[in-house]
Amino acid sequence: MIDKQIVNMGKTSLIQLNPVTISRMLEIAPNAFLLSFPRSFEFEAGQVIGVGLSKFDDARIYSIASGTKEDQIDILFDIKAEGYLTPKLASFKAGDTLFVSEPFGSFHGSENTAWWIASGTGIAPYRSMLRSGFGGGKWVIHGSRTEASFYFADEFSNAFGHHYVRCLSQKNIPSDAMPDKQIFKGRVTQFLETFDILQKELQYFLCGSAEMVIECRELLLEKKVPYGNIMAEVYF
Asked: Which helix (H) or strand (E) holds 89?
């Protein structure tokens, strides 16, 4: 059993930011980037770091997307046109200086059988958990409006096979998205509704938009999943 926790992935001015040098910046999908810098700290899979453009910034919070034994720290972000950080961050390149915090948070991976449920960039902590050796006995359910936004799809597909399900919610799904790929036509909540019974003894991790997390949490509770078996992290 785990205690239910909802973490708001917004911004905070209560953490210290230290300089790091960006080692890699990859655009892995339209307006979505994987940023890397050398690892100088220990962390637990699923934890987050604060990110800013200077040490005086109110830090924006991002999940670590790399494994605990890797030499580089990866973070995944997409551009929020109205945002303060991501439009500027997308212009950074290898060699530029970024400011980050020590890792924190209790959205931790474990060896327990579980469902990892995500929307959009909320898939990031599950990549860290997978790369840290916690992939056994897991289902991965990833929701997105577009097929291009199923980040790390090849990696998850190779690791989980038919236990990796992509929920594509755009109204007009291209015909070439089916049938050879494990794609469900609809939202994550609609996929969960196809199950009359969910295993109550499992752990259910939720990470993504506030709308997805709240709706999935309510649906899991309606299906009699114990309150303490739901761990949630909200992205903004």
From this structure: helix 86-89
Instruction: State the DSSP string of 124-172.
Output: HHHHHHHHTT--TTEEEEEEESSGGG-TTHHHHHHHHGGGEEEEE--SS
pTM: 0.90
Q: Whose structure tokens read 């036509």?
A: 185
Q: Which amino acid is at 113?
A: T
Residue indicated by tokens 């897991």:
138
Domain 114-235, second-level architecture: 3-Layer(aba) Sandwich (3.40)
Per-residue pLDDT reduced to its tens digit, 29-88: 999 999 999 999 999 999 999 999 999 999 999 999 999 999 999 999 999 988 889 999
Of 50, 43, 40, nearest to 16 by C-alpha is: 50
**Is the Cβ–Cβ distance between 9 and 59 less than 8 Å?**
no
| Fold classified for 6-100 | Elongation Factor Tu (Ef-tu); domain 3 (2.40.30)
Q: What are phi and psi of 234, to 5 degrees?
A: -100, 130
- Band of pLDDT at residue 145, cut at 50, 70 and 90: very high
